[in-house]
From TrEMBL:
Keywords: Hydrolase. Gene3D superfamilies: Histone deacetylase domain. InterPro entries: HDAC_classIV, HDACs, His_deacetylse_dom, His_deacetylse_dom_sf, Ureohydrolase_dom_sf. This is Deacetylase.
């Protein structure tokens, strides 16, 4: 096995008209990784089960979870999700969250684990928005802490959109450090306060982006000395992205992952142990599906080169 990759067979189920693209990437990416030999069939695992209520409720309110599972959100709350609310959608989110939890436990053995889905960072404690119903990395972070698998956690969110839900969830918690580097002009237009926010101007190019990241990330890891790192590696930073406003190229996005994953691989905990890493895919909405797949596949190629 190279490293474990969560894959959710429920994504094979067709979505309603108008919501199929770009969600087809969840089906195509595993095929590409297998075809080119970046991953083997044995690298992939399905989530062990739907994420159970007790794990979800360490992050989300009981009222929200109850109404979500009963498909009983009010019209305004349901509209903010961006998808038609149905049982299949709720199951997908529960599988995503469990895939991230399972990946975390596997990362202690393999040092890194990937989730073909996930990165649902717009989900707040009491509501979801922007295609995010339940915050998978927040749920997994609380799982690790509850089971005493990690004490201090670092969340590195390099999606083009600020991780507003993640920031809200951990806003008063020093045990989880939230870092979001995102487009200043992008959704959400009312930002939350992460522990560290870097808001980049429209059309930020590769050089400017990478210089900023080089300046911040290694020192941040050394300062926080986390026991576990979550990485949200959205590829909506590309200049072609329909929902992004940055100006990065495909090569620049790959260099971002090379630098971030290399920094994680070099870091050590207070006890001089390697830090386990869990990566969730995040966004990617370029009009050309081949470009989306190539950008996401680069993340896995880089991870293979660094960690195997």
């Amino acid at each position: 096995m190279n490293f474990p990759i969560a894959f959710h067979p429920i994504y094979k189920h067709p979505l309603p008209d108008g919501h199929r693209f770009p969600m087809v990437k969840y089906e195509l990416l595993p095929q590409q990784l297998l075809l080119e030999g970046t991953a083997n069939q044995t690298d992939f695992f399905e989530p062990s089960k739907l994420c159970c209520d007790i794990d979800v409720l360490r992050v989300h309110t009981s009222e929200y979870l109850k109404n979500l599972k009963a498909l009983n959100l009010d019209r305004k709350a349901a509209r903010k999700l961006g998808f038609p609310l149905n049982n299949q959608l709720v199951e997908r989110e529960l599988y995503i969250a469990q895939g991230t939890i399972d990946g975390c436990t596997k990362a202690f053995e393999y040092n890194i684990a990937m989730n073909i889905a996930g990165g649902t960072h717009h989900a707040y404690t009491d509501h979801g928005e922007a295609f995010c119903l339940l915050n998978d990395q927040a749920i997994a972070a609380r799982y690790l802490q509850h089971h005493q698998l990690a004490d201090k956690i670092l969340i590195v969110d390099l999606d083009v959109h600020q991780g507003n839900g993640t920031a809200e969830i951990f806003q008063n918690d020093d045990s989880v450090f939230t870092f979001s580097m995102h487009g200043a002009g992008n959704y959400p237009f009312k930002k939350e306060l992460s522990d560290l926010d870097i808001a980049l101007p429209d059309h930020t190019d590769d050089s400017s982006y990478l210089n900023e990241l080089h300046h911040i990330l290694p020192d941040l890891i050394a300062q926080e000395q986390p026991d576990f790192i979550f990485y949200l590696c959205g590829v909506d930073v590309l200049e072609t992205d329909k929902l992004g406003r940055l100006g990065m190229t495909l090569d620049g996005c790959k260099k971002r992952d090379e630098f971030a994953l290399s920094a994680f691989a070099k870091a050590r905990t207070k006890n001089n142990n390697r830090i386990p890493i869990q990566c969730s895919m995040g966004g990617g909405y370029s009009p050309d599906i081949k470009l989306i797949i190539e950008a996401h596949a680069n993340t896995y190629r880089v991870a293979r080169d660094i960690f195997t």
